[in-house]
């Protein structure tokens, strides 16, 4: 090995590997590649050898991964990696013109670095920000809606030693500093991750969901990004609150008098130390966002997508497309979707987890039973008769 990595890098490598189960340590390869890149500015042959050595892999295995992903650089890279999206959407909006202007001004082509070692320019494929096109990133932070002049302004400020503020996200750092973060270590600069916020196009879906009363329990789209210290403090307070709410071991159960009306969500509506019903349902003590009724978000989403509830929905759970190519018969789409929701436990993110084995058949039967009570039974029966 021609390069001796620093003690700090070696300590970080041990920390990364310790994040994974002992028999899965090769999963640490991706962050380790970022780590060696954070020291050398690219993944050198020595970096490949280092990763292979600490993970017990051979160099071919490491090289195969390092050469697959474009974020691992194979040649020394400048302090600032300027990536201009020239994919379809950005291209028609002027992305190629931005790239050509920068290439001419800097005197470099794709994956080349200026003589002062400051800027590396590259074409990028879609940067997943088409709604802000044309976009470019500097060390993976976004500059939205750029044009040749504004892009030139950014690179000139960088070459002059400035740190222009990205349109969204955290403030700029060098590529080596970014590689440390990508290896899984926090950016310690004051306020480094609390700058900026999402743009309105990014939040458009959320705003529409709010308008239509669709919400994820406990989620506030305006939640500020907390620093780690603040997040730790909030977590500690929540833990202390939960501990304080635990019932005393000797506390006797209390029974509300028969017929007493206790408003939901008020003290006494749940057992001592138990969360209120809404909290039990969502697992969260934060207020729901604009929930106009007691329906689950999944049911509300189904009703929003299919408000008339009496037309065929080919992809609703429990719906089978006839094999003879005819259009599916009318069915109660809301009931079919609701049955599918009920049959699939929500995942941790609140979304349906997907059909488990047998769920399609069960959903279909439940939907048929529902359809039989609203006059659509004969149509469903004939459809299933075709399929069987
Ligand atoms: S095409 Fe440029 S971000 Fe998608």
Keyword list:
Glutaredoxin, globular, Arc Repressor Mutant, subunit A, 5 strands, mainly alpha
Question: What can you see in these coordinates?
Answer:
This protein is mainly alpha-helical and 388 residues long. Among the domains are: 7-66, NADH-quinone oxidoreductase subunit E (Arc Repressor Mutant, subunit A, Orthogonal Bundle); 80-177, Glutaredoxin (3-Layer(aba) Sandwich); 306-387, no CATH class. The chain is 41% helix and 5% strand. The protein is built from 15 helices and five strands. It has helices at 7-18, 29-40, 45-55, 59-66, 88-92, 95-106, 148-159, 175-182, 200-211, 228-245, 277-282, 297-305, 333-343, 359-372, 377-387; strands at 80-85, 112-113, 119-124, 136-138, 141-143. It has a five-stranded mixed beta sheet with strand order 2-3-1-4-5. Strand 2 and strand 3 form a beta hairpin. Helix 2 runs antiparallel to helix 3 (45-55) and helix 6 (95-106) packs parallel to helix 7 (148-159). The chain is globular, with a radius of gyration of 28 Å. Mean pLDDT is 75; it is low at 255-291, 311-322, 347-356 and 374-388. FE2/S2 (inorganic) cluster binds next to helix 5.
């Amino acid at each position: 090995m021609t390069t001796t990595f620093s003690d700090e890098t070696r300590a970080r490598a041990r920390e990364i590997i310790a994040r994974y189960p002992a028999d899965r340590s090769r999963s640490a390869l991706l962050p380790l590649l970022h780590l060696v890149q954070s020291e050398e500015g690219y993944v050198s042959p020595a970096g490949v050898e280092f990763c292979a050595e600490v993970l017990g892999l051979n160099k071919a295995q490491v090289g195969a991964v390092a050469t697959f992903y474009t974020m691992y650089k194979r040649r020394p890279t400048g302090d600032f990696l300027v990536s201009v999206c020239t994919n379809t959407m950005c291209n028609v909006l002027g992305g190629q013109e931005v790239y050509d202007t920068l290439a001419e001004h800097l005197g470099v082509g794709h994956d080349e670095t200026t003589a002062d070692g400051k800027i590396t320019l590259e074409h990028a494929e879609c940067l997943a920000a088409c709604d802000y096109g044309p976009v470019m990133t500097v060390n993976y932070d976004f500059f939205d809606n750029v044009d040749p002049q504004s892009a030139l302004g950014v690179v000139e400020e960088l070459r002059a030693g400035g740190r222009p503020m990205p349109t969204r996200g955290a403030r700029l750092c060098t590529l080596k500093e970014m590689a440390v973060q990508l290896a899984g270590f926090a950016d310690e600069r004051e306020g480094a991750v609390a700058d900026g916020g999402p743009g309105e196009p990014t939040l458009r879906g959320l705003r529409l969901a709010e308008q239509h009363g669709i919400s994820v329990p406990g989620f506030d789209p305006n939640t500020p990004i907390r620093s780690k210290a603040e997040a730790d403090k909030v977590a500690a307070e929540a833990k202390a609150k939960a501990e304080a709410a635990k019932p005393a071991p000797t506390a006797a159960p209390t029974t509300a008098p028969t017929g007493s009306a206790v408003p939901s969500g008020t003290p006494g509506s749940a057992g001592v130390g138990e969360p209120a019903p809404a909290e039990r349902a969502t697992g969260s003590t934060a207020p729901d966002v604009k929930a106009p009724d007691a329906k689950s978000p999944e049911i509300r989403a189904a009703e929003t997508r299919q408000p008339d509830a009496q037309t065929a929905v080919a992809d609703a759970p429990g719906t089978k497309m006839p094999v003879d190519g005819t259009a599916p018969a009318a069915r109660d789409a809301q009931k079919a979707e609701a049955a599918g929701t009920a049959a699939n436990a929500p995942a941790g993110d609140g979304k349906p987890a997907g059909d488990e084995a047998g769920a399609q058949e069960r959903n279909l039967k439940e939907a048929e039973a529902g359809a039989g009570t609203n006059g659509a039974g004969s149509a469903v029966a004939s459809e299933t008769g075709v399929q069987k």
